[in-house]
Amino acid sequence: PLRYPATCMFKGSIESEKYQYIIHGGKTPNNELSDKIYVMSVVCKNNKKVTFRCTEKDLVGDVPEARYGHSIDVVYSRGKSVGVLFGGRAYIPSAQRTTEKWNSVADCLPHVFLLDFEFGCSTAYILPELQDGLSFHVSIARNDTIYILGGHSLANNVRSANLYRIRVDLPLGSPAVNCTVLPGGISVSSAILTQTNKDEFVIVGGYQLENQKRMVCNIVSFEDNKIAIREMETPDWTPDIKHSKIWFGSNMG
């Protein structure tokens, strides 16, 4: 169904020319949440026509609950790859639902899920540095590391200015996942992230408060595995953009 899920690009190896899209979760127009995961790939290209194949992937183990507003990325370590899922919102447990609160949502637990797309396995990790479930955050994947910026927490109604670095090591045995809180984050939710070159990204739009759009743009750059975030020159926004209520990403409703 039509929905807004989390999507990422998956290559067998970081140098591979072939890739697939991984699609997980999402909220439908009927306010239903999905926990399904799909793999979409290009079957053939001819005469300017592209044919896609989309298959549903079953997961076993610690299966992430149905959610939206989360992120999914792929990291590469020691010649192997794994998906990393974090954050989002889900409906409150059925035991806590009342007629008035039937469609109420809550932050998902701040677990980090590692997804093995080849074998369909999912494992949840609890990292002490991640105390809040975050939704509509920005995630950037580079090699064996994911950076989490911003995001909104329903529990305390804040947009965190924390910057988290989640590193995944994939030795022959069990994976190792660790998290570090870095300085220099930004407070934003529902922003758009665009990659402009190998080591540079641009963050546009989003909200800094519930009813206050973030009109500042940022450049995120990497050098020697160090991340730097700085403001960039702001475009001359048109009146339509300045006064619209929905700002690029998704609204907080």
From TrEMBL:
Location of this chain's protein in the cell: Nucleus
Major site of localization recorded for this protein: nucleus
Entries under Gene3D superfamilies matching the protein: Kelch-type beta propeller (2.120.10.80)
One Pfam family hit: RAG2
GO cellular component terms listed in the entry, alphabetical order: DNA recombinase complex; nucleus
Classification via InterPro entries: Gal_Oxase/kelch_b-propeller (IPR011043), Kelch-typ_b-propeller (IPR015915), RAG2 (IPR004321)
Keywords assigned by UniProt, alphabetized: Chromatin regulator, DNA recombination, Metal-binding, Nucleus, Zinc, Zinc-finger
Gene Ontology BP terms: chromatin organization; V(D)J recombination
PANTHER family assigned to the protein according to its UniProt record, in alphabetical order: V D J RECOMBINATION-ACTIVATING PROTEIN 2, V(D)J RECOMBINATION-ACTIVATING PROTEIN 2
Stated family: Belongs to the RAG2 family.
Protein name: V(D)J recombination-activating protein 2
Gene name of this polypeptide: RAG2
